[in-house]
Specification:
The complex is a heterodimer of chains A (111) and B (844). Chain A has 111 residues and is mainly beta. Chain A is built from no helices and eleven strands. In chain A, a hairpin with a 2-residue loop joins strand 7 and strand 8. In chain B, strands 3-2-1-7-19 form a five-stranded parallel beta sheet. Chain B has a five-stranded parallel beta sheet with strand order 9-16-10-11-12. A five-stranded antiparallel beta sheet of chain B has the order 21-22-25-24-23, sandwiched between helices. Classes of the chains: A mainly beta (111), B alpha/beta (844).
Chain lengths: 111, 844
């Protein structure tokens, strides 16, 4: 519980995502070094029903950081997990931070 | 019991078939059981373009019948059976083969025969009418033992026939009875220039030649003897001196016949029997027989309307026509001969560029009555609109044919056309129809063509259609936003040019200098693809990795369950037994599902992301390399086994396929690209359904471009014939680079072609004639791609830092436990949701 150490900063994939196992949860972590921004959401794609979101392309739409599902291309906010195409679909978003050389995730803390 | 009536159509030529198509598209089709007789052994085909049969097109290509048309519409067709007699009292038709059918309504579309002049000796061996595919086959055989061919008749079809003789590599002569070529359509000035141009192409044209007999030749097979004492020796004679309507069956049953032959019809195309119609070249309307297809199609529409209770009249048809004869543009509109009393004539003649234009206008200088254009027919769309829509001419009508030497445009803006103006004459699409479709949301050329069929026949109206579209969109205030996405106010082509001109090498640099925000999956994928096409760097380099599409990021194809499929390259579909065994062993070791693809290789499914490098290490050790099945890039070059083994093979299709696949492998493009090579015209490799298709013929290789299978099949266009390998590769280099440079994102070559202004002719002018003076650069660009090829999997495996990404969890060696398989037909498949829940419950 609380902040959990996940991996080193070097394990992150700049401008892309990786998946971490945190308390049996699959967490997709995205890193945009240019803005020094880091985001964490659940790795589960509710449309494709498989754990693949960490492999999606990231960017922004109307200024909101997002990931596009690698399967069917729906967009999810990296801040809130809200699906852009379907108001009724949200996936969990988690607090994530870089401390020194380490990356930490807090499953209880919303971003 | 059905209370449907029986409708019998005699003749399945162009017009007879067009009638069936129109009928099936109408609401009244449910009222009839339809039966048709087709005397020829094959159903309707395009007689207008017969000469293409010798330029590589097959009988199938010329066919006008969509696959399954007769079956799907429940039409009974009696193929190879000629309707012989009509019993009007009993209302029956009896065929040669003895079939008797009762009719309620009867449509005669018996067409015409080629007129064979009544000359002694006209039925000698190798004297052939030019009319049917059977005639063409006879010509083909005759040509193999001949050196010289003569066409009797210098009309439209006669000149087409001359092209056919040239394509058969015969010394070609055209013998015309009258004083000029295309007598019906051209005046003396136009005909003189046409003659000169046709002669420049190597055809000898003789006018004012009255052939009085054909006898044994001294050196060649025949000798034609002319009334003026001249003689001409030849091996083959083709008759194309006009047509004669076929109406014996109508005359025999007592229907009224026109003064010049043909079944007499009224404005509803009804004969003297109120249950019998006649349409097309067998019909005589107001003592006129129409030897073109457009009036025949108009008659077909009239009959469908009349059957539906609509009295729309056939009002005759203007004989305006525009065509390219052996590369020479010719057009004729209305009263080309200025026969209208008091008409006035304007003529423009340019001996330097070989252009002749003539306008015939009314006495008050306000209406266009006719026109002739030779050498430059670009004014045809505008002029034909002035003519057909009766639009008042500008103050100085000659401005319409004089070359414009300023920027001032003298063309008729599309806005000036009335809604009734016909834009597409092949499918009778009016400007009003087009505006309706645009209002309904068809705002691209592709969508507009799909919806209205305009510009999908001869394609001659494509430019006009485009200008109507642009004009309507502008009027509606619809700004067509061609920006690729919110991050770049550019089209894909703009981005390509920016990258090329400014030598930009990364997405980050491009968005910093020319875009806004962080990018999205649209622009990233597009730019990633352009960078890969142009610079051809390793796509998983750190600066490129984040812009790759789903499949490219792991160099494999993601499947619905999050696992990947793996496809090693098998160039040309060729694989050694050792290779096949290695693939089998690897698949077995990793428990993969194996399937043979449509592109002649093996796909291995069900690999977890962490297994990909292990599988590829073994594949590479066995001598395989990446198949790029994951990329928007060259996929496969399919081939038939070719002349090496096949009894019918003309050339080594496998050898060429392997060479081409090795040349273009790794080339990234706006979308995937597929090739095929067939070793003969039997076309076992289905090359005409590929982006690039190649067929071996006796004279070399025929190249087809922009075909597609898939959702919207498209036959490839015949691009060039009888090429040697060097030229073939040069053309493919240029076509592909031009496609990569100018297509929209995710646009296959077929759609690219459909949307290209100027279409096939334009592409030819760029690639063959180097109209834009860019061929050198296009070839160099391709050379760069070929030289910098690398197997992406080999590069990846050799780089420790790249392998780090190939694991499911960044902080654990566990696999994704949700990936579960069940067995089916002896192999794995992804578990469905219920099976997955069941299996997961078992695990716990």
């Amino acid at each position: 519980m609380g902040w959990q150490d996940v991996c080193s900063k070097n394990d992150l994939q700049p401008n892309s995502g990786v998946c971490a196992l945190v308390e049996d949860q699959q967490v997709a972590i995205f890193y945009m070094p240019d803005n020094n921004a880091i985001y964490a959401i659940n790795n589960y794609d509710p449309f494709g029903k498989v754990h693949v979101l960490s492999r999606g392309l990231i960017g922004d739409l109307n200024g909101e950081p997002m990931v596009s599902s690698p399967l069917y291309k729906q967009h999810f906010s990296l801040k809130t997990g809200q699906c852009f195409e379907d108001d009724s679909v949200t996936i969990p978003a988690y607090a994530v931070r870089i401390v020194g050389d380490r990356v930490e995730v807090n499953l209880a803390g919303e971003q | 019991m059905s209370n449907k009536q029986t409708l019998v159509v005699i003749g399945n030529g162009m017009v007879g078939h067009n009638f069936l198509v129109s009928l099936m598209a109408s609401d009244i089709k449910e009222n009839y059981n339809v039966v048709t007789f087709c005397e020829e052994p094959i159903p309707a085909y395009d007689r207008v373009h017969l000469s293409e049969y010798f330029a590589g097109k097959s009988a199938d290509d010329l066919s006008l019948v969509e696959l399954g048309f007769f079956e799907d519409n429940d039409i009974t067709i009696h193929m190879g059976d000629k309707a012989n007699t009509i019993d009007r009292a009993a209302k029956t038709v009896v065929s040669d083969k003895g079939v008797t059918i009762h009719y309620d309504k009867l449509v005669l579309a018996t067409g015409s025969t080629a007129f064979v002049p009544p000359i002694p000796g006209n039925d000698r061996d190798q004297c052939i009418p030019y009319r049917t595919i059977a005639d063409l086959d006879e010509m083909k055989v005759a040509a193999t033992k001949s050196k010289v061919g003569v066409v009797v008749g210098g009309g439209l079809l006669g000149l087409e026939a001359a092209k056919a003789l040239q394509d058969l590599k015969l010394e070609t002569h055209v013998v015309q009875f009258g004083p000029r070529l295309m007598e019906a359509q051209l005046d003396d000035g136009g005909a003189d220039l046409l003659k000169q141009k046709i002669e420049d192409l190597g055809v000898n044209v003789l006018t004012n030649k009255n052939t009085i007999k054909i006898v044994d030749g001294d050196k060649l097979k025949h000798k034609m003897v002319f009334a003026d004492g001249g003689e001409l020796e030849t091996d083959v004679i083709l008759y194309s001196a006009g047509i004669r309507p076929r109406y014996e069956i109508a005359a025999d049953c007592g229907l009224e016949i026109g003064g010049r032959g043909g079944v007499a019809i009224n404005d509803q195309c009804l004969s003297s029997d109120e249950d019998i119609y006649a349409i097309g070249e067998c019909a005589s309307w107001n003592e006129q027989i129409f030897g073109l297809v457009a009036p025949g199609y108009a008659m077909a529409r009239t009959v469908v309307a009349h059957l539906a209770g609509d009295e729309t009249a056939f009002t005759g048809s203007d004989m305006s026509t525009k065509l390219k004869l052996n590369g020479v543009d010719v057009a004729s509109i209305g009263d080309a001969h200025a026969k209208t009393p008091n008409s006035l004539v304007y003529t423009y003649q340019n001996g330097v560029d070989g252009i002749y234009k003539r306008l015939v206008v009314s006495a008050d200088n306000k209406q266009l009555l006719g026109a002739v254009l030779v050498g430059d027919a670009s004014g045809y769309p505008t002029l034909s609109q002035y003519y057909a829509s009766n639009i008042e001419l500008p103050e100085n009508p000659d401005s319409l044919i004089l070359p414009s030497r300023s920027d001032e445009s003298v063309g008729l803006g599309p806005d000036a056309l009335p809604a009734s103006a016909q834009i597409c004459s092949c499918y009778d699409v009016s400007k009003g129809d087009i505006c309706t479709a645009i209002e309904a949301g068809c705002t691209t050329m592709g969508a507009l063509k799909d919806e209205t069929k305009a510009a999908t026949g001869c394609g001659g109206c494509a430019a006009l259609l485009k200008s109507v579209l642009d004009c309507e969109l502008e009027k509606a205030g619809i700004e067509v936003n061609t920006d690729i996405c919110e991050h770049f106010a550019y089209t894909r082509q703009d981005l390509y040019n920016l990258i090329m001109v400014e030598e930009i090498k990364t997405f980050a640099d491009l968005i910093k200098t020319h875009g806004t925000g962080q990018g999205c999956e649209i622009c990233k994928q597009a730019v990633g693809s352009i960078l890969a096409s142009y610079w051809n760097e390793y796509i998983l380099q750190n600066e490129h990795l984040g812009v790759q599409d789903t499949n490219d990021t792991f160099l494999a194809n993601m499947q619905k369950d999050g696992t990947y499929s793996v496809v090693p390259r098998m160039t040309g579909g060729e694989v050694t037994p050792e290779g096949l065994i290695a693939i089998g062993q690897i698949a077995k070791k990793y428990g993969l599902y194996t399937k043979v693809t449509g592109g002649q290789r093996v796909d291995l499914f069900g690999a977890r992301v962490d297994q990909l490098p292990l599988i590829w290490q073994e594949l590479i050790d066995a001598g395989f390399e990446s198949g790029h099945a994951y990329g928007k890039s060259l996929r496969t070059v399919k081939s038939c086994v070719g002349s090496t083994w096949c009894r019918f093979g003309v050339d080594d299709s496998v050898g060429l396929a392997v060479e081409l696949e090795n040349r273009y492998k790794g080339l990234r493009a706006p979308h995937k690209i597929k090739f095929a090579v067939s070793g003969c015209t039997r076309e076992c490799a289905e090359a005409q359904s590929k982006d690039i298709g190649i067929i071996a013929v006796e004279g070399g290789w025929n190249l087809y471009v922009c075909g597609n299978g898939g959702m919207k099949p498209r036959h490839g266009d015949l691009f060039a014939t009888n090429l040697d390998k060097e030229t073939l590769i040069k053309y493919i280099d240029r076509v592909l680079t031009f496609y990569v440079q100018t297509a929209d994102r995710m646009q296959r070559t077929s759609v690219w072609m459909e949307n290209m202004e100027g279409g096939l002719d334009y592409l030819k002018s760029v690639v063959i004639d180097d109209k834009l003076d860019i061929c050198d650069r296009l070839e160099k660009q391709m050379e760069h791609v070929v030289e910098t090829y690398q197997c992406e999997w080999k590069t990846t495996i050799e780089d420790e830092s790249k392998l780090k990404r190939f694991r499911h969890f960044v902080n654990s060696d566990k696999h994704d436990e949700n990936i579960l398989f069940v067995e089916e037909r002896g192999q794995i498949r992804p578990a469905n949701i219920e099976e997955r829940e069941h299996l997961l419950a078992e695990k716990v």
